[in-house]
Write a structure and sequence with these properties.
Elements lengths: L1 H8 L9 H22 L9 H29 L11 H30 L8 H43 L7 H6 L1 E5 L6 E5 L3 E7 L2 E6 L8 E3 L2 H7 L7 E5 L2 E4 L3 E7 L2 E6 L5 E4 L4 H9 L2
Antiparallel strand pairs: 1-2, 3-4, 3-7, 4-5, 6-7, 8-9, 9-10
Length: 298
């Protein structure tokens, strides 16, 4: 049993990389905390006068929301190696959210002291250990349950996508047109509109962003992997006529869908194995639905 639990905790889990999602989660959590205290009035809050009671409820909601938003936006940028998605797992997610809860408890303690001082409430009512521990114990159970449920949901969805995709790759709906495809040439033009690269569509494997450049991965004689000074977004616009053959699967990568031979996945996301390449390419969560449409057109 313990071995199974440890295996699940070490399972890959998506790291939050969207500021909008962090903001939405923080605001939603703060609103939930406010509604929870206003509706149930636990820990004897109902005995307080309306003014300090409202101050506590609104303050706890604000502390929760601001702590989640600030920690979610700032810490991954201060410690990017710790929060890298390829190293993230379910256990780290629960540990991370538990530590954020402890900070929320500390914030609620400081806020409680300030409110008690402002309204003349007894100072002995506010105890650091009690408030921080109560906050952690109240929050850690739903945090664990929510993340476990989300892990199971993501795993089921991605396993289903992997199975559907691999079946389609083994039995494509349409037959390729080799004569037409062999004649197609892809031309990429750098930002200076002078440097360019031209190669057959059938030789192109994928294009990867590297800071202010893009690296072109190809097979055969083009396997030198040349660099062009350009953003991936600019390259994506140039390649629009080749969609869905060439499509963006990640913020750092455009892949030739005809080169995909196998798809694997877990709760964290999908990974693409290509023909004639040792690289394994990720499919970002925002591109999963588009990826499914692309595979249906193969």
């Amino acid at each position: 049993m313990l071995k199974k639990v440890l295996t699940i905790l070490h399972s890959p889990y998506p790291a939050e990389d969207s500021p909008f999602s962090t903001l939405r989660y923080g605001l939603g959590s703060g609103l939930f905390v406010y509604i929870f205290f206003a509706a149930f009035e636990p820990f004897g809050f109902s005995l307080l006068a309306p003014a300090p009671r409202r101050a506590f409820y609104i303050g706890y909601g604000l502390v929760t929301g601001l702590t989640i938003v600030l920690s979610g936006l700032l810490l991954p940028r201060l410690r990017p190696r710790f929060f890298r998605e390829e190293n993230w797992n379910l256990g780290k997610q629960i540990l991370w959210m538990g530590s954020v809860t402890l900070v929320i408890g500390l914030g609620c303690y400081l806020l409680s002291k300030a409110i008690c001082a402002h309204y003349g409430l007894p100072a002995q009512w506010v105890r650091l250990q009690t408030i921080v521990l109560d906050t952690f114990l109240i929050a850690i159970f739903p945090i664990t349950v929510i993340n476990l449920a989300n892990y199971a949901r993501l795993l089921r969805r991605n396993v289903r996508i992997v199975q559907e995709t691999n079946r389609r790759l083994e039995h494509p709906a349409t037959q390729p047109q080799p004569e037409k495809t062999l004649l197609q040439q892809v031309e990429l033009v750098a930002e200076n509109n002078k440097d360019s690269l031209r190669l057959p569509l059938t030789d192109l494997l994928f294009i990867q962003a590297e800071e202010n450049y893009v690296r072109v991965h190809a097979r055969g004689e083009r396997a030198v992997q040349p660099l062009l000074r350009s953003s991936l977004t600019r390259v994506e616009r140039q390649l629009r006529p080749y969609y869905p053959r060439l499509f963006r699967c990640h913020r750092t990568c455009i892949v030739n869908s005809a080169q995909i031979v196998k798809v694997a996945g877990n709760a964290q996301g999908l990974k693409l194995t290509l023909r004639d390449s040792a690289a394994t390419l990720p499919v970002a969560r925002r591109y999963v639905n588009e990826f499914r449409r692309v595979i249906q057109d193969l």
